Amino acid sequence: MFSFISKRLLQLIPIILGVTFMTFTLLYLAPGDPAQSRLLAQGTVVSDEALESTRESMGLNEPFLVQYWNWLKGLLTSDFGTSYHDDQPVMIKLQRAAIPTIQLTFFSMLITLLISVPLGILMAIKQNKWIDNFIRLLTFIGTSIPNFMISLLLIYVVCLKLKLLPVVTSGTYKGLILPVITLVIMQSSKFIRQVRAEILEQMDKEYVLSARVRGVKESTLLFKNVLHNSMITIITIFGLSVGTLLAGTAVIETIFSWPGLGKLVIDSISYRDYPVIQGFVVIMATVYVLINLFTDICYKILDPRVG
Amino acid sequence: MKKRIFSLLLTAALTLGFVSGCSSSSDITSSTEETKNSSTEAVSTGETLNMATAFWYELDAHKDYNGWYSSMYGITETLFKVGDDYSTEPWIAETGTCEGNTWTIKLKDTVVFSNGNPVNSSVVIANLQRAGKMNERAALLAAASFEEVDETTFKITTQQPYPTLLSDLTDPFTSIMDIENIPEDDYNNSIIGTGPFKLESYSAEDKIVLTKNENYWNGDVILGTVNVYYIPDSSTESMSLQSGEIDVFVGPDTDSIALFEADNSFKVTSTASTKAYYYIFNMDTMTDDAVREAIMKSVNKSDIVTLLAGSIVAAEGAYGPDTALGAVSGPSYDPEGAKKILESAGYALNKDGFYEKDGTELTIRIAYFAARSIDKITTLIQDELKKSGINTELQLYEDPDATYMETGDFDMAMYVYSTTTSGDAYSFLNATLSATGNKNCGNYNSENVNALLNKLVTETDSSKRVDLSLQIQQQVLDDHAVGYYAMTNKVTVSKSTVSNCNETNPLTFYFLTKDTCIG
Fold first, then answer.
1. Residue B203: its chain A contacts at CB < 8 A?
2. Per-domain residue ranges for chain B?
């Protein structure tokens, strides 16, 4: 197990190098540059001298590989550099944005898990009955409505009409409720159907038939065998979702004024804020590798036959 | 006798109670010293105002555009400010006079920082020097030399004539702060300015709390506290106002404007801002003046205004239609006239309903980017040009910095620019219309305009500067080189009882004042 984990962690190095180099190249090739974005932020004309002076101070006149190497050198000493947009240390900006995103991810994934697995099982057991059809209809609606629409509807109904929560939550825990509900609706709508499909697939297998023939109780069969065997797929789905959520959901964070990673990185792309984008890419590459590692470890525990 | 005295006192108390609160009546006597700029004398209510901002900047006013926000929040002020009609007005400074390359500026002797420290010449010089070092847009200040004459008088000498110095000193990056008493790396938590409000707390991308500056040099401040919430989404801002959690914000989206206008419990104030919507022609490819004129006659400004429902106002020039700088006149909407012009120039309609000449269909490549409603406007213009028999090919770019215009790969390019932040037109006109202008992406080159711009460089008389700016814009319109068609509105939406948020000033960095109140 130790060598397995070490090998996976070592894979981080080429992954980070590859991803950051590709990102840096794409940003470099994109029209505009950080100096222009910074000086033209309020839509005013600026002189060529001001632009050149800003480019010089940002090191943007260096050749592409020199710029990338300078950034990489900083990374080796855990210095992600300073933001091109506001000169703040990148690490501080990312840390500040990561905490709200982690909170959002944790609560939404927990609730999604608690809703999706039981409902998926219920739908599988009651396949094609009214409860199955009803929940499927709800999941269809949940998947069809765009996330920004769900967000705005929730604010309108819950905050404006029913006055159950304030619109302005200013970083309090009340501010988590509606964005978590939005994410739960979006995620559950997909997961419930995937859990249902996986359970149904397992229940069609021969071991289930032979267990039934031997007189094994249905509940025992379901929770000790079918669910256990479905966990690999379920863990895979959830693992991927955690990674996606940790990357942040910019639209939801913007609407709910939740200062997470998604909004930070979208704004950084507009500003051509290379250091922040590169820092984000490094962190997300690390997160995805760790999540995949955790998922693989779970596989091994659940099913030792997995290589 | 006692009863009579008591009655008199009671009457006096009731009278005072009646005239106190949020009122701009000149009957109320302020206990503070009157100043030249104070036109209202009101009693402090100590109330709390909740406002929203869609953009988050730090508070070191000398850096980048941070000063726009420290000014908006009423924390910092500049030596001069821009009036509602783009005029330059005294603020912390009293007067500014020019002789050759040297400006002499006299400060008001009543100005103090929120911590009570006085504002004097050496403090102001230190601020301007710091701004010159820190802000790339302050190149002229960086190269200037300063001389302290006395406590309230100093001189600025520039390497070449600088007729717009006073208007450039309205830019918030020249804000005056007590820089000696602010830790260099902690402006966000420690900023000290001269404005009606001082910083109480700062929570990044979340909330700023401001409290009344008890030492404000320009009169008593009505409000006690202001909470500034960061709400980046305009729909969320609108719902926050509707729920009563905020009292005012600037910049609602188009749909919300109609919603608030229909409800008497809210107030919507629109003023033409300094952002101009316009299109330019590529003078290297659009060589036929008849075609350019026909296009300008085909664009219906009122249709565009209707499309963007309240968020813009039609304009003839690059400045507010009700301002002195905006008093120009371009080709009026006349699609039939446009067709006649094209036909006189030898164009004829083909079977597809588009004009062609010598077997080549007239097709205009329009470059634009999809933000600030430019995409909606471009689609509308495409439709209007079609009615005039002009075919178009739209080229959409994901490029808010407008580098797509610098390639020259267009016949017509759409953009929106802030045309002044100081009330003076020279920077924008020079950059976009001078033969050597760095934003003259259409390669427009007019001897007359270049000569007028050269005069503007050295002209010190403000009314002559306005006249020169008008002549430049008119020449450009007569040459059919640029089509200015609208100015964005600075739209302030608030509860009906909120007032004095600089609603009528075209610049967004003037917002909170000592007279801002909830009523």
1. 170-171
2. 24-195, 272-489
Which 3 state secondary structure label does DSSP give A106?
A: helix
Using CA of residue A164, residue B55, residue A108, residue A170, what is the dihedral sign? negative
Q: Report the residue from B63, B136, B230 with minimal CB separation from A257.
A: B230
Closest by CA to A168, choosing from A262, A252, A258, A108, is: A258
What ipTM does this complex have?
0.86
- Please list the pLDDT of chain B residue by residue as tens digits (519 residues): 544 544 444 444 433 333 333 333 222 122 233 333 344 456 788 899 999 999 999 999 999 999 999 999 999 999 999 999 999 999 999 999 999 999 999 999 999 999 999 999 999 999 999 999 999 888 888 899 999 999 999 999 999 889 999 999 999 999 999 999 999 999 999 999 999 999 999 998 889 999 999 999 999 999 999 999 999 999 999 999 999 999 999 999 888 999 999 999 999 999 999 999 999 999 999 999 999 999 999 999 999 999 998 899 999 999 999 999 999 999 999 999 999 999 999 999 999 999 999 999 999 999 998 888 999 999 999 999 999 999 999 999 877 677 788 888 999 999 999 999 999 999 999 999 999 999 999 999 999 999 999 999 999 888 999 999 999 999 999 999 999 999 999 999 999 999 999 999 999 999 999 999 997
- Ramachandran angles phi, psi of B279, nearest 5°: -130, 150
A46 and A179 housed in the same domain:
no
Nearest chain A residue to B138, by CA = A50
Note whether A44 contacts B417, CB cutoff 8 Å.
yes
Structural domain includes residue A307: no
Polymer length of chain B: 519
Residue of chain B whose Cα is closest to the Cα of A161? B243
Among B233, B372, B374, the strongest candidate for a mutation testing the A interface, having the largest count of A CBs within 10 A, is B233
**Which listed CATH number (3.30.1130.10, 3.10.105.10, 3.90.920.10, 3.40.50.80) goes with B272-489?**
3.10.105.10
Q: Which residues of A touch B439 (CB under 8 A)?
A: 45
3-state secondary structure of A161: helix
Cα radius of gyration (chain B): 26
Q: Give the right CATH number for B24-195 from 3.40.30.10, 1.10.287.3510, 2.40.30.110, 3.40.190.10.
A: 3.40.190.10
Q: Which residue has the tokens 């300073």?
A: A82
Best of A29, A37, A44 to substitute, by most chain B Cβ atoms within 10 angstroms, is A44
Q: B139 vs A50: CB contact, 8 Å cut-off?
A: yes
Cross-chain Cβ contact B136/A155 below 8 Å: no
Instruction: Tell me the pTM.
Output: 0.86
Same-domain status, A271 and A140: yes
Chain A interface mutation, best of B58, B167, B171, B205, highest count of A Cβ atoms under 10 Å: B205
Q: Are residues A51 and A110 in the same domain?
A: no
Cβ contacts of residue A289 below 8 Å, gap of 6+?
A: A8, A9, A11, A12, A15
Pick from A45, A48, A256: CB nearest B432: A45
What is the Cβ-side half-sphere exposure of residue B177, based on CA atoms within 13 angstroms? 33
| Residue ending a domain, choose from A45, A76, A107 | A76
